[in-house]
Design goal:
Layout lengths: L2 H28 L15 E9 L5 E9 L3 H12 L2 E7 L4 E9 L2 E4 L4 E7 L2 E2 L14 E8 L1
Parallel strand pairs: 1-8
Antiparallel strand pairs: 1-2, 3-4, 4-5, 6-7, 6-8
Length: 149
Amino acid sequence: MNKKEKLTISLSILTPLLIIIILFFAGISTGIITFKSPKLIKNQGEANVQIIIDFNDGIIYSDNVSIENATVLDLLLKTAENTGMKIEKTYWKQFDSYTIDSITYNGKKYGGGTNSYWALYVNNAAALEGADKILVKNNDTIKWKYEKF
C-alpha cells in the first residue's frame, strides 16, 4: 500500500469522526445537547397521596393529602407547614438537587448528624432521584424514614 492509499483510508476514517465531534460541540454550544436534568413540568393536576414520616423511634406521622402540581419535596414542605415541623435541607449544585438534613417534630430534631440520614421511598421503592425531581401522582405513597448507622 502506497502513501496515497494510506492517506485516503485515513481521511475516510477521520473525516466522519471529525464531523461528529464538531456537531457534538456545536450542539453543546447552542444548548441542544445539555448535561442538566430537564426542567420538571408541573402539570399533573391534583393528586391524593399518603405521606408517612417514620422517625424510627416509634413515632410515625401519617396523613392523606391533596396537592396540586407538586414534587415530593413540595409535599414534605407543605406537610411541615401544616403541622409545624421544621425541615432543614441542603442544595447540592453538582446534583442539582436537595437532600433532607433534619426534620424537627414535636420539639425533637431528627437528623443533622454524621451517622444518620433521611431515606425516601415512593410506593415502597427506594427513590432513585432527589425529592425535588419526583412528581407526586394520584394514589402515591410517599414515605420518609429516618435511618441511623
